[in-house]
User: What shape does this take?
Amino acid sequence: MTIKALKVEVRRSEVTNIPTVVAVWELPILEAMHQAVKVIEEVVLDREAPSAQDEFSRLTTRYGRTTNEDGSRGISFVGAVYGQFGVGLQRLGDAIKSATIATPATDESAADLLAEQLVQ
Assistant: This one.
């Protein structure tokens, strides 16, 4: 299986632009966090799609939390973008599912079935 990804340039300040590659579902989080995010190109990564729960945890660790007006820590950026608890997991899961590209089967039985369909 493969997933859709984006090569982006994240503008952190007037003098700092950081190029990186992220999964498609990470783009809204980056846009919520930074002044500007420029998509350079679409790419495909050859990796398994993560579960929504594992990815929610990973993104929370990677991007951290918002800061409240009083300086205390708020909700996670992933929670702010996708929602919290079950709703957030469902929305993130939907985003992951829509960015997943199923690769065709490569075993002999699938190849034989395809050859049979082409002959008919």
Remarks:
- The chain has one domain: 2-119.
- The chain is about 40% helix and 30% strand.
- The first helix runs from residue 27 to 33.
- The two ends are 29 Å apart (CA to CA).
